């Protein structure tokens, strides 16, 4: 039995929102596992810094995922400059914290465009090559809002919940062609975004920890290694799943 089933040697991975946070953590774990990664985002300085830290296996493309007509061009650029794309991580997104009755149609649409429509466009552009080579993995970054009811995030919850339907439908369509489709659903992870969200709010912090059976926040690498597993040969018979990485929060009481 091979001992390197968790490796990603010879894989080329495109990670949207890859310069910071969970995308950056996924990129680091991919690189450690042998993959070449292409980070996608809108801020060139952030992408440059991330690539310097990740080393020679990392490169970047400045790209706005909401530009619908640019998805195929991005995939072509990656394949011409780095190699055939075998892993796509749909991780880019925006957050909106607002009561549902105060969330405008324009705001709601913007969140869905950034998450759902952009992910569909990139996946649609990447799939033909993966199907032709009969090798590929598409990973979506879902959320606890895909699984639990949370207040003040109606647009974000709608977008992240839509990912689950996309994963299941895509898995049924693509898996017979050698392309696996999965999602991860991060819980509360120690990132700058979490610290900003908590903002010294000990009551909210304690509420989160109180409903998390492991009684702690996760670390970014917890997400990175889970993503690595789902995109590795170790998960070759895994498709259409949503894997919570949440310390048990989604099943806790």
Quick synopsis:
The protein is α/β, with parallel strands linked by helices and 253 residues long. The chain has 8 helices and 7 strands; from the N terminus they run E-H-E-H-E-H-E-H-E-H-E-H-H-H-E. It has a single domain (12-190, 221-244), classed as Rossmann fold.
CATH superfamily: NAD(P)-binding Rossmann-like Domain
Q: For the record, give the distance between the C-alpha atoms at the N and C termini, rounded to a whole number.
A: 40 Å
Question: How many DSSP H or I helices?
Answer: 8
Low-confidence stretches: none
Give the strand order, joined by hyphens, for the main sheet. 3-2-1-4-5-6-7
Shape: globular
What is the CATH class name? Alpha Beta
Can you tell me the CATH topology?
Rossmann fold
CATH architecture: 3-Layer(aba) Sandwich
Strand content: 15-25%
Q: Kindly state the mean pLDDT as a whole number?
A: 95
The count of domains is: 1
Backbone structural class:
alpha/beta
> Would you list the SSEs in sequence order as H and E?
EHEHEHEHEHEHHHE
Instruction: Describe the main β-sheet briefly.
Output: 7 strands, parallel
Topology, number of strands: 7
Percent of residues in helices = 40-55%
Please compute the radius of gyration using only Cα atoms.
Answer: 18 Å
Can you describe this structure?
- The structure is a single chain.
- This protein has 253 residues and is α/β, with parallel strands linked by helices.
- The chain has a single domain (12-190, 221-244), classed as Rossmann fold.
- The chain contains 8 helices and 7 strands.
- It has helices at 21-32, 44-54, 71-81, 105-133, 154-174, 192-198, 202-210, 220-231, and strands spanning 12-16, 36-41, 58-62, 87-90, 136-141, 179-186, 242-245.
- It has a 7-stranded parallel sheet with strand order 3-2-1-4-5-6-7, with helices on both faces.
- Helix 1 (21-32) links the parallel strand 1 (12-16) and strand 2.
- Helix 1 crosses helix 8 (220-231) and helix 4 (105-133) packs parallel to helix 5.
- It starts with 11 loop residues before the first strand and ends in an 8-residue tail after the last strand.
- The model has no long low-confidence stretch (mean pLDDT 95).
